[in-house]
Amino acid sequence: MGVASDANWGDRAVCKSSDPDELFVEGAAQNRAKAVCVGCSVRTECLAFALDHRIEHGIWGGMTERERRALLRRRPMVTSWWRLLETARVEHEQRLHAGAPASDGNRILPAQSLASR
Ligand code: SF4
């Protein structure tokens, strides 16, 4: 299921049943909070939502507000993160199906690869 077609991604959020305050922490606690997102199946959707809505606080899609601000500054021409991340996901899955290795030999989700650019 693609990003653009999945309006109910929040239903599958790993953090859905946890205390929301755990994702709105400061300093070193943010690294612990980000760990919650590592195995979340809707990480890309979550990040796209936060970027497109310019959400300024909290951990979204495994990124802190500072990391998201930096990403927005690096890519000022992006008008739809939702569309960009969906395209990145499709291309990533096509490469995997074609047998091409991921850039570092591990499976990298689009949200993770964008964050490192
Ligand atoms: S990526 Fe993180 S913040 Fe977003 S829904 Fe998943 S667990 Fe929650």
TrEMBL record:
Its cofactor is [4Fe-4S] cluster. Residues 95-117 are annotated as: Disordered. [4Fe-4S] cluster binds at C15, C37, C40, C46. Binds 1 [4Fe-4S] cluster per subunit. Following nitrosylation of the [4Fe-4S] cluster binds 1 [4Fe-8(NO)] cluster per subunit. The keyword Ribosomal protein does not apply. It is found in: Cytoplasm. The Fe-S cluster can be nitrosylated by nitric oxide (NO). Pfam families: Whib. InterPro entries: 4FE4S_WBL (IPR034768), Whib (IPR003482). Keywords: 4Fe-4S, Cytoplasm, Disulfide bond, DNA-binding, Iron, Iron-sulfur, Metal-binding, Transcription, Transcription regulation. Its main location: cytoplasm. Residues 14-70 form the 4Fe-4S Wbl-type domain. Belongs to the WhiB family. HAMAP family: WhiB. Acts as a transcriptional regulator. Probably redox-responsive. The apo- but not holo-form probably binds DNA. This is Transcriptional regulator WhiB. It comes from Streptomyces marokkonensis.
